[in-house]
Write a structure and sequence with these properties.
The complex is a heterodimer of chains A (144) and B (102). Chain A has 144 residues and is of the alpha+beta class. Chain A contains five helices and six strands; from the N terminus they run H-E-E-H-E-H-H-E-H-E-E. Chain A starts with a helix and ends with a strand. Chain B has 102 residues and is α+β, with helices and mostly antiparallel strands. Chain B has one domain. Classes of the chains: A alpha+beta (144), B alpha+beta (102). At the A-B interface, strand 1, strand 2, helix 2, strand 5 and strand 6 of A face strand 1, helix 2, strand 3 and strand 4 of B.
Chain lengths: 144, 102
């Protein structure tokens, strides 16, 4: 029973570790009137990220063969050599997922003043995969 | 015993601040009225499920400058480690200048 509890606790820690990591945030100039009287909007774009090291480690759990484990590690090491350099979050397979933000902002507030824009780059981390998120909040001035 | 103490002291002295992000916008000529806002969250055992603590900072700055504009905003995002693996503080700060509208 105690062993089962320990396993459950370990699994809970593993899955509850779906944590939010903030990498960067940036703020534009603020027109106080537009912010205080305007309507707040939020735009979120995201892409699935993959942690190859965790994927390789998980895959190793499903094989008994030392040779297969070694080969998996070698594959991971080779891929890692092409993933060097500074980065935020895990690798994604489509780097253009944030390109639609400008259009989305214009759609939120088509003809009025936009102020107090905050850009947030964050990661929602889960085992092996992650959500690589760009979140924009801002205020759309009311009236003309 | 000494080596154990050394390891433990190294563990405790490891508490530090990590600056993740810095940004600034155009600096105005009127810099007589500085305003600032901070968003913080204490993080226990690396559990943090959202980053909403930064969302009210724009409104905080606007309230400090109700009839003008806030410009020259310097933002910083820091991760402060109090005790590795157990206690962290996530701190976002924004400092700027309240400028009268033309």
């Amino acid at each position: 029973m105690k062993k089962n509890n320990l396993v459950l606790l370990s699994l809970a820690v593993l899955f509850l570790n779906g944590c939010a990591f903030l990498h960067q945030f940036q703020m534009s100039s603020i027109d106080s009137e537009a912010v205080m009287t305007g309507k707040k909007f939020e735009i979120i774009v995201s892409e699935t990220g993959v942690n190859l090291q965790e994927a390789a480690d998980t895959a190793k759990l499903f094989t008994q063969s030392q040779q297969t484990r070694k080969e998996m590690q070698q594959i991971n090491d080779i891929i890692s050599m092409f993933q060097m350099g500074p980065r935020t979050g895990n690798m994604v397979f489509n780097e253009k997922y944030a390109d639609s933000i400008m259009r989305a902002i214009q759609l939120e507030c088509p003809s009025r003043k936009i102020s107090g824009l905050t850009s947030i780059r964050e990661t929602a981390k889960y085992p092996v995969v992650s959500g690589e998120i760009v979140r924009i909040t801002g205020y759309c001035q009311k009236g003309s | 015993m000494k080596s154990l103490l050394l390891i433990l002291s190294a563990f405790f002295l490891m508490s530090c601040t990590h600056l993740s992000s810095v940004s600034t916008s155009a600096i105005p000529t009127q810099r007589s009225k500085p305003v600032s806002a901070v968003g913080e969250r204490f993080m226990f055992m690396l559990f943090n499920f959202d980053n909403k603590y930064v969302d009210n900072m724009v409104m905080d700055l606007a309230r400090q400058c109700p009839k003008g504009r806030v410009e020259g905003i310097l933002t910083k995002y820091e991760v402060i480690t109090y005790f590795p693996l157990f206690a962290y503080n996530l701190k976002a700060s924004a400092d700027g200048y309240c400028v009268a509208k033309n």
